[in-house]
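Task: sequence design from structure.
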């Protein structure tokens, strides 16, 4: 352990969010773990026996957040490269591409992310000819906001032999499916090891500045590569910053495949193991056609393939997981996991805590199945904030009636389904308090959950899906992963107007959290600590 991890620290004079004491104002950290939480008066007994006393000056201390679905290198490249998430029109996006190419001369490949033509008045992405002109003929790879399709310049396509014959190739429009995967592989291969390291450092530094103490890296052969994952895990093990737990999204069929996943350092053969694609790219697999396209999307794995993967993982003691968004894809996951349970026994399946990423289009039957099979829903509330609502992208793709059924967090919690919150960054930004707000103020009111439940899903939920029930909360014995926040009054917010919207009554015995009413300021991170080691300190005011 480092010196900072072995020192004993008393934090006092603030608000400590702990189920051990809803009125706690102080906390002792020793050897990287929480040793005590309690009142200010009791803190006097520890003041002379610690290495350091920190005056919180009224600040709030909470468990550090866990982002349960991140693409770390891609997040860092977006932070350090071309970010189109703020582009308001096609012309704006092309202008940003041109400016980026001018600012980065030379032969290095240009990488960008975040265009969303559904939000632009032109309602179309840039053509290849437009991008060729804007880049001066240089290689450019530009992913849509959902990362399930991309546009590229001619110079990059020329680096991929046979790309025109691959599924998903389009002469002028976005690339999807196999064509997209091939072009993405060529683009990523052009990223130097130093670029990759710089991007990973940038992403972890940014996460720490937001009070995030743990990241679940969702890697895989169709997303990144083995070197990217192993380099990230080595970086996280050797440098201060958020913890990183890696997932490798490759289907396995036997113990040999499971051993290979473990050799990579991954905690599961899970994450973005694609059963389908995304709604924005019209590749999520639906049971009925899209409202704005005459097809039902793309299926990558069927129930039999899901069953084989879950069976092999469970027998090897490895966590399995899948990316599934459309109702047909979620149904295939449920049918496959149930088939594995019939073969191995329900208890073994539940004990493995297998997970499903996104799980957006659920019906009562699949929600019940998630609860029965012990599946964790690893979900991204910012998706609803970005694309939900009566006139959002979901309604455009599905029609308003189907769109209103998406992301039913309240129904999942009522059924007893564990939730783990994440961002899918860079699809949506790292933004933990914004994520909690998005769940509590879901665009469809019946799907809203309390701030407390959302906060739990974004702290403890990510630890539970890893099989750790002793972390993600500030109680004695838990890892000292915490963040210190400047915020306003603490309240207890409910998601339903039939009950009190918020309460500050201390008699409730419920620890308060910041008021996340839309339009108000979000808490500001002052310090982030992982295993007792400070990994971020905010600038002094």
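Answer:
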């Amino acid at each position: 352990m480092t010196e900072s991890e072995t020192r004993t620290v008393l934090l006092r004079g603030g608000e400590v969010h702990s189920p051990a004491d809803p009125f706690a104002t102080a906390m002792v950290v020793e050897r990287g773990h929480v040793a005590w939480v309690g009142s200010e008066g009791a803190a006097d007994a520890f003041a002379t026996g610690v290495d350091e006393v920190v005056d919180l000056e009224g600040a709030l201390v909470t468990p550090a957040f866990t982002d349960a679905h991140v693409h770390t290198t891609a997040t860092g490249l977006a932070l350090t490269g071309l970010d189109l998430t703020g582009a308001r029109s096609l012309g704006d996006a092309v202008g940003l591409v041109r400016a980026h190419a001018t600012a980065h001369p030379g032969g290095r490949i240009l990488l960008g992310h975040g265009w969303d033509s559904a939000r632009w008045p032109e309602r179309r992405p840039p053509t290849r000819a437009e991008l060729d002109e804007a880049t001066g003929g240089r290689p450019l790879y530009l992913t849509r906001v959902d990362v399930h399709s991309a546009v590229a310049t001619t110079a990059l396509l020329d680096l991929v032999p046979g790309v025109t014959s691959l599924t998903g190739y389009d002469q002028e429009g976005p690339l999807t499916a196999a064509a997209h995967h091939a072009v993405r592989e060529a683009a990523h291969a052009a990223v130097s090891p130093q670029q990759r390291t710089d991007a990973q450092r940038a992403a972890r530094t940014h996460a720490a500045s937001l009070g995030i103490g743990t990241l679940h890296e969702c890697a895989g052969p169709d997303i990144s590569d083995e070197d990217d994952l192993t380099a990230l895990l080595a970086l996280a093990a050797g440098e201060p910053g958020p913890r990183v737990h890696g997932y490798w999204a490759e289907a396995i069929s036997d113990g040999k495949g499971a051993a290979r996943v473990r050799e990579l350092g991954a905690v599961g053969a899970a994450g973005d193991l694609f059963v389908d694609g995304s709604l924005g790219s019209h590749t999520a697999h639906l049971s009925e056609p899209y409202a704005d396209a005459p097809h039902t999307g793309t299926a990558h794995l069927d129930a039999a393939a899901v069953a084989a993967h879950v069976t092999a993982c469970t027998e090897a003691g490895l966590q399995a997981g899948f990316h599934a968004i459309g109702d047909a894809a979620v149904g295939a996951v449920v049918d496959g996991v149930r088939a594995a349970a019939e073969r191995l026994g329900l208890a073994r399946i539940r004990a493995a805590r297998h997970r499903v990423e996104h799980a957006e289009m659920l019906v009562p039957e699949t929600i019940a199945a998630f609860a029965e099979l012990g599946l964790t829903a690893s979900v991204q509330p910012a998706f609803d904030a970005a694309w939900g609502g009566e006139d959002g992208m979901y309604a455009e793709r599905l029609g308003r009636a189907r769109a209103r059924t998406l992301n039913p967090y309240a129904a999942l919690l009522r059924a007893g389904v564990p939730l783990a919150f994440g961002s899918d960054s860079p699809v949506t930004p790292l933004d933990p308090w914004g994520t909690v707000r998005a769940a509590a103020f879901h665009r469809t009111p019946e799907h809203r959950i309390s701030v407390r439940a959302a906060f739990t899903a974004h702290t403890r939920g990510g630890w539970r899906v890893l099989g750790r029930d002793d972390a993600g909360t500030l109680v004695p014995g838990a890892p000292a992963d915490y963040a210190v926040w400047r915020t306003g009054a603490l309240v207890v917010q409910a998601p339903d107007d039939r009950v009190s919207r918020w309460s500050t009554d201390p008699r409730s015995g419920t620890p308060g959290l910041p008021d996340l009413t839309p339009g108000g300021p979000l808490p500001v991170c002052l310090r982030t600590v992982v295993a007792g080691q400070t990994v971020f300190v905010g600038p002094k005011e």
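The longest strand covers residues 212-219.
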